[in-house]
């Protein structure tokens, strides 16, 4: 008997038929004698419907009320999933984030999990019940409902796996696992059996849609081994863990493209100590996640800062920079939304030379212009024209022999 | 400056346009300087949608999960209403039942309010915020979400008015107030300016759809004066309170028809002490509200019990009676759904004679057969053929000169 935490995403529980199907899958696991804690997302589409309704009543809805609103998406799914389990004779009980003791900080719409009080869940597990927990949500110390932001349901599952000392954590989604590249774009992409946290993290932060970085970071921090697999078949998925066999033999493990970033150029800034700090402090205070950063010193004592932010945050970024530029006494902000980030990722990069050169040559041969470059120990990212991004992914995938 | 509790029902907040309209009404009250606590229901139709989805995943959904599910209807409306208020520049904050400190017993789908901890609301009221509270829901001691059953949002409003010592409680609905009869059925029906708790209670229990009995009972118990009025116009409504001017001058204040009852006949029961107690204990244990009861002793030591239950509970009633009859060693259950209850109500009945005779004569003249009769101090009810109910209401309304 193992203790297993499973997470089913929005497409897996997209309608009543799919919820019934998930219930049958859970029943099969239960009949193997496992203790099961199941995290579910909102039905796919529901969150967007709620956001649309919010925007119809108020142009700029308060984040506190937005959380109060969005939390109902998962609350619907937990109740329906528990009922569907009852329908097939499985004892089950649903928990909202608050009921599951998931305490967060007070940052609405992007809250961080602080602690989990798993006592009530332990009691129901002992009683032989399958526990269904609402993903994506928690409660803060003031009793206000918070949501965890994008990918929040994965985070709920991994945090629960850590808190409950689960033997396994399975993230069920609509893809079979982690691929060397997006199979819709690169036909020769292969599914990986295993991947390290670091590689997964770099892939996630590079636009691989499988999981958000923070869930992987959380898993790495608490040593939660998890498997990404499909809820629509029974194929084995990709196991994500600390150490991967033959890790250093392969220089590049995958190629990822992120089309959801925008490039922000802040030009003609007074070139004085503390300028960059003020700019990025303002963005941090607005909870905007800045990705790549490049600074060039320009002519005549002015500096240019270039960085990327999520496409959805460009308006917020511009607005938060206005008072900073006014105080600094200079500078202009220009946003370019027609860009994409291409990244190649691999732990083996640490011990292989020439990875950057191979990538740049491959892109040059294909006539793809590089606008920005950023590297980490196990990743090289370039900003290129969004229109050329898919082609560039295929070229890079082939250049590193990933097919 | 007054402290006002308002309640807006499902049709008043039926879509985003109506929610925005309610926000404008609230804004106008706020600008008069009042402290406002606003209780809202789920958008009309939402609760039925959720029930349909529940039944699609499970033939007989658990009541605990049903509450978990249904509570999201009001949670959506509170968030949207608070946002709509922000959109028109009014400071507002939403509260779920649990957040508003509405503690109930543990009877799912029909919970009773035990206590309200209004401290958090007082704080926000002092800060000048309009408070939006989810009607129909609460939380029990185990942290489980409960719902209050039909008419639960009215109950939330009246209980909050009592707990917060509000100066006024206004129940906004889709009708202008309480009428002498249903205006859709009886064209000459008039709106009443005032009505006593007792009369309102008898009207409510007699099928007048304006409000459920329990809310009126709660108001009577705690002396909460409330007004029933429309959210679609600015007409004054009907004030419900203890003492009504000239109360005893009018024998009959209104006529009500209830088509949502079924008649249950339990026949050939062994005529021994305790039989009726066993029958009604079984129904009470199944949380079925029994309305009219008539017992006839039959021939040869067997008894017949006739009573009415809500139409929605007929299957449950039959099921809960089976083991009782088995234990008693006899008896058959027959259900008749084609009936209606017609009631005439008035405090003045206490001091006027001949009310029953007038009613029976009027029905006899119209050829309407009476199947059961039940009377209280201020009400006379008869069970008649459902198909003749509207006609009977018009006849009774005219007979007592209510037009």
Quickly describe the structure.
By secondary structure, the first copy, chain A, is an alpha/beta fold. Chain A contains eleven helices and 20 strands.
Describe the structure.
The structure is a homodimer of 403-residue chains. The first copy, chain A, is built from 11 helices and 20 strands. Chain A is an alpha/beta fold and 403 residues long. Chain A has an 8-stranded mixed sheet with strand order 3-6-2-1-9-11-12-10, with helices on both faces. Chain A has a 4-stranded antiparallel sheet with strand order 13-18-20-19, sandwiched between helices. The first copy, chain A, is globular, with a radius of gyration of 22 Å. The model of chain A has no long low-confidence stretch (mean pLDDT 91). Chains A and B meet through α1, α2 and α3 of A and α1, α2 and α3 of B.
């Amino acid at each position: 008997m193992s203790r297993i935490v499973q997470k089913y995403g929005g497409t897996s529980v997209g309608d009543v038929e799919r919820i019934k199907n998930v219930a049958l899958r859970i029943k099969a696991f239960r009949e193997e004698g496992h203790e099961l804690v199941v995290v579910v997302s909102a039905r796919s589409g529901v969150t967007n419907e709620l956001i649309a309704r919010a925007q119809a009543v108020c142009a700029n809805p308060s984040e506190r009320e937005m959380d109060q609103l969005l939390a109902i998406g998962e609350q619907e799914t937990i109740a329906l999933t528990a009922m569907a389990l009852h329908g097939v004779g499985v004892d089950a009980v649903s928990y909202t984030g608050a009921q599951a003791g998931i305490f967060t900080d007070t940052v609405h719409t992007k809250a961080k999990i602080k602690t989990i009080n798993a006592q009530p869940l332990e009691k129901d597990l002992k009683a032989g019940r399958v526990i269904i927990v609402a993903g994506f949500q928690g409660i803060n110390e003031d009793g206000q409902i918070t949501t965890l932001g994008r990918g929040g349901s994965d985070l709920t599952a991994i945090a629960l796996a850590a808190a409950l000392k689960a033997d396994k954590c399975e993230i069920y989604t609509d893809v079979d696992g982690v691929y060397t590249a997006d199979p819709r774009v690169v036909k020769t992409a292969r599914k990986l059996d295993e991947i390290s946290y670091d590689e997964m993290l770099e892939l996630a932060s590079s636009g691989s849609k499988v999981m958000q970085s923070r869930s992987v970071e959380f898993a790495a921090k608490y040593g939660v081994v998890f498997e990404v697999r499909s809820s629509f078949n029974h194929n084995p998925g990709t196991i994500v863990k600390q150490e991967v066999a033959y890790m250093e033999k392969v220089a590049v493990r995958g190629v990822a493209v992120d089309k959801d970033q925008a490039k922000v150029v802040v030009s003609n800034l007074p070139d004085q100590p503390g300028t960059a700090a003020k700019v990025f402090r303002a963005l941090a205070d607005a909870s905007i996640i800045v990705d790549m950063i490049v600074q060039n010193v320009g002519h005549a004592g002015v500096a240019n800062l270039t960085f990327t932010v999520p496409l959805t945050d460009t308006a917020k970024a511009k607005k938060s920079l206005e008072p900073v530029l006014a105080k600094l006494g200079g500078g202009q902000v220009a946003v370019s939304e027609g860009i994409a980030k291409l990244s190649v990722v691999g732990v083996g990069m640490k011990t292989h030379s020439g990875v950057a050169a191979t990538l740049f040559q491959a892109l040059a041969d294909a006539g793809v212009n590089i606008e920005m470059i950023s590297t980490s120990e196990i990743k090289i990212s370039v900003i290129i024209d969004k229109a050329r991004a898919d082609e560039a992914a295929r070229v890079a995938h082939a250049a590193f022999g990933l097919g």
